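Hey,

Quick one before I head out. I ran the complex with zinc ion overnight. Inputs first:
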Amino acid sequence: MIPVIDGHNDTLLLHLEQPDRDFFSRQESGHVDLERAREGGLAGAFFAVFPPARTVPGAPATFTRRDGTTARPVPPVVERAEAVDATNAMVSQLLRWDADPERRVRLVRSVADIEAAMADGALAAILHFEGAEAIDLDLAALDVYHAAGLRSLGIVWSRANAFGYGVPFAFPSSPDVAPGLTAHGVRLVKRCNELRIMLDLSHISERGFWDVADLSEAPLVATHSNAHAVCPSPRNLTDAQLAAIAGTQGLVGLNFNTGFLAPDGSSDPELPLEVMVRHVDHLVDKLGIDGVALGSDLDGATMPAAIGDVAGMQRLLVALQDAGYDQDSLEKIAYRNWLRVLRLTWGE
Ligand code: ZN
């Protein structure tokens, strides 16, 4: 079994919503727990802290645009006090798992930590924020969360905040649908570079992407996005964006959400693995074999039934092997590319 490092899950949010869940025992619902993680070869994962989306009472979930395509309204802005409470609860959850006396889950702060966890058969958990809503404009909270273990930050989710703008859920759509970074966002990028916190470009507007590309000194990374040329969701990356990522020795993690994979944007779990292979082929074509990794979105999205949950992770690798990827390529996609980019971004 090839070890897997996964660029994105929403497991902490699931535990926030379902406080009685036990990560250490097998669960009947959701996609990730420690037992199923072991079955799927999961060695490490980015655990996202996501201040939950608010809804507007009575607002429609989707609407039809004048050109006949469908979209969801952009979710409302989340206030900082609310985001801080949710963020602290989820960071606390990960700290408590890390405090398990058997050290089966470890909050990792370096590549050496990840490698040590892998050697011991423990799950390496990377603390990631999906949206910077909990960060104050003086960036003091960034220092505090960094000290607590934060190593990866997506400036925005699919909504606006003080630092930038996300792409809405719409299909088909260009990602060039919102402004770029605010002046606060520019300062946030520079401070993340100083602290060596990885910046995640999944969800950001195309203008925001190019702002980060101009400013950041680290490799460009999208933890959980696919190829816009195969599935024209605004969450996916255009060939121009992929070329920019390739130029920085960066990386894209393949998102398993059916709606970001299917060429027609439909969210059908019967999506064949061949479509995932098609995205990997396109990403490898534009990024090279060193620039493609995995970023499943487990516990936060509709998984293809052929994978199901974290226990089915290896089935994608088998499908890639059947499509002609050799052992070296499979290992790069499964975990070595993540280690390479994290080493470049975080330092040794
Ligand atoms: Zn996401």
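The domain at 4-346 is CATH 3.20.20.140 (TIM Barrel).

Talk tomorrow,
K.
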